[in-house]
Design brief:
Blueprint lengths: L4 E6 L6 H12 L3 E6 L9 H8 L3 E2 L2 H6 L5 H6 L3 E7 L1 H9 L5 H8 L4 E5 L3 H5 L1 H12 L3 E2 L3 E4 L5 E5 L3 H13 L23 E6 L4 E2 L5 E2 L6 H12 L3 E6 L10 E5 L3 H11 L4 E4 L6 E3 L20 E3 L3 H7 L6 E8 L3 H12 L3 E6 L9 E2 L1 E5 L2 E4 L3 E2 H16 L9
Parallel strand pairs: 1-2, 1-4, 2-3, 4-5, 5-6, 9-12, 9-14, 12-13, 14-17, 17-18
Antiparallel strand pairs: 7-8, 10-11, 15-16, 18-20, 19-22, 20-21
The structure holds cytidine-5'-monophosphate.
């Protein structure tokens, strides 16, 4: 088998030093690597270092190509099996999204007909800026595979999402992209993570997190839901090409790239936003909605008066958002509920499926995988039976679920927005 060929475009940013390690990993495992440095990238790593490690000429400007009769920019962009942009800066991705070709890197990116994988790195505020999120949604819509950045302390001293994924993670994403890239022999199938967007053209609504039900201005009823599984599902749906509306209860999680997010506090607010978000092709109700709220919310803080008397707390039942959507005339063609159970997981889920009127219940045992953890072992319960999956990290559960949703929607025409 011929060695896989990687065209690595290195943008400007302090994280560019990690691309040196990426080149080393790629070369060690037999990949052919050609590096292109942007003008800003050159400020952080030298062409000499990259040339030594890649054992190939490093390209820095369009002028380099005009020098060489045998290597025009079209050829350079097309002789690779995969184009990797790491670090992908906010500026570089903005240019990619707009189709600007004003230097070698952006010209290659516009001219290529190969899958593109981008590993973003930037300051947290730049990452969270609506312009960047819009550009990422555009790029994903165009078939570019944009990795989620890591979260943590940044070189600029701030904390949050925006760090370049570790070289090992980019390396793994490259191998995954190559594994499903079109065959060089047939050019088929057109299936790669970079342009594998089975939910393209679909609208998906996701609820996530807990709800908070106020008792008075300082106290509320809550539960232990972290929102991690719901946010991972919203991220996976966007990665799969869907237009995603995420209705989130109170959680401290960043908005996944390319997702439209509406924050709510209570079940009643969540129900209103869900209704406003319909119609959709699929709704995935992951939120742990509080079953009850305080029957009357006090306008002022309830005082402890020292008498030893405990104030009564009357509860009222919250609307069952899932059951109400199931009954509504805007019921999505695919309606999915989640169920956190501590015992008899499947039996409870089967009963819930009938009671709620949804198509699938994704049930998980919160005694085995406590709420707030990083993994889930789920059972998909539907009228077709029960499918049990191994314990997986929450993002992997989300991606697997997207494949199943795409299969289920395959024969249905997309829902038109109002
Ligand atoms: O009844 P239970 O809370 O176990 O059902 C869980 C499923 O129902 C989840 O999909 C959850 O989002 C949804 N649900 C809802 N509204 C409620 C309670 C639960 O939509 N009031």
């Amino acid at each position: 088998m011929p060695a896989p060929r990687i065209l690595l475009i290195i943008g400007g940013g302090i994280a560019a030093y990690k691309s040196i390690e990426l080149v080393r990993l790629l070369r060690k495992s037999g990949h052919v690597v050609r590096c292109v440095l942007t003008r800003a990238g050159e400020q952080f790593v030298t062409p000499l270092t990259l040339a030594a490690l890649s054992e190939n000429k490093v390209y820095t400007s369009l002028f380099d190509l005009k020098d060489e009769v045998e290597m025009g920019h079209i050829q350079l962009s097309r002789e690779a099996d995969l184009v990797v942009v790491a670090p992908a800066t906010a500026d570089l991705m903005a240019k990619m999204a707009a189709g600007i070709a004003d230097d070698l890197a952006t010209t290659l990116l516009l001219a290529t007909d190969k899958p593109v994988l981008a590993a973003p790195a930037m300051n947290v505020r730049m990452w969270l800026h609506p312009a960047t999120q819009r550009n990422i949604a555009t790029l994903r819509g165009d078939g570019v595979s944009v990795m989620e950045p890591d979260e943590g302390e940044m070189a600029c001293g701030e904390y949050g999402p925006g760090r370049l994924p570790e070289p090992e993670a980019i390396f793994a994403a490259i191998k995954a992209a190559l594994a499903s890239a079109p065959s060089p022999l047939t050019g088929q199938p057109d299936f790669a993570p970079a342009n594998h967007r089975p939910l393209h053209g679909r609208r998906i609504l996701v609820t996530a997190g807990p709800t908070h039900e106020p008792i008075d201005p300082v106290r509320y009823i809550a539960n232990r839901s972290s929102g991690k599984q719901g946010f991972a599902i919203a991220a996976a749906a966007a990665e799969a090409g869907a237009e995603v509306l995420l209705i989130a209860g109170p959680v401290a999680l960043p908005t996944p790239a390319g997702v439209i997010r509406v924050d709510v506090e209570t079940a009643v607010e969540m129900e209103r936003e869900v209704a406003a978000g319909l119609p959709v092709d699929a709704a995935i109700m992951v939120a742990a909605v509080a079953d009850w709220r305080a029957a009357d919310t006090r306008a002022q803080k309830i005082k402890k008066d020292g008498s030893g008397e405990v104030p009564p707390l009357a509860l009222a039942e919250n609307p069952d958002i899932l059951a109400n959507v199931a009954k509504s005339d805007r019921r999505p063609p695919l309606l999915i509920g989640f169920a956190a159970e501590t015992n008899d997981v499947v039996a409870h889920a089967e009963a819930k499926l009938a009671r709620k009127g949804c198509d699938w219940i994704v049930a998980n045992d919160v005694a085995a995988d406590p709420m707030g953890g990083e993994t889930n072992r789920v059972h998909i319960v539907s009228n077709a039976g029960v499918e049990s999956w191994d314990r997986l990290p929450k993002p992997a559960v989300a991606r697997k679920l997207m494949e199943k949703i795409a299969d289920a929607l395959e024969t249905r025409a997309p829902i038109e927005a109002d």
